[in-house]
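Pinned message: reference record for MICA1 monooxygenase
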Amino acid sequence: YPTWKRTLTRRAREAQMKRFCKAQAIQRRLEEIEVTFRELEQQGIKLEKLLRDEEGTPANQKTQWMNQLLYLVQKKNSLMSEESDLMIAVQELKLEEQQWQLDQKLRCYMNKEESLKTPEDRTAEQEILVQLLDVVNKRNVLIHIQEEKRLSEL
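Predicted structure (tokens):
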């Protein structure tokens, strides 16, 4: 087994593990965000009740509650933005994995000597190339979305 093939195999496994670890971290963060959303929702409900029910409350207390409510809304919006970024990252990871798998299939066909390829092999190779191009275009769209979002936040 040539050294270069072992190296490629090792690097592929390392890249796959890296994607897997990143996916796990994203999943954990999404779960944390969900819990935080619920907590913010409960705090918001309490503040809304206080604002509606307390008629004899001093104006400065109502202002403080209103500021707290606005802070909760701002925090929720921030978390929604982060959640959106994480969902894009999940899609990107899926597309990376899909691209890697298509690359592997394509290498099998390309490593086959041209004289030994059947018409079915050539057709399959072309289909894989089309699929690979589609995945690359989808990744490009995701990158474009991220860039547009980043620029709009600035």
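Pinned by admin. Summary line: The chain has a mean pLDDT of 92.
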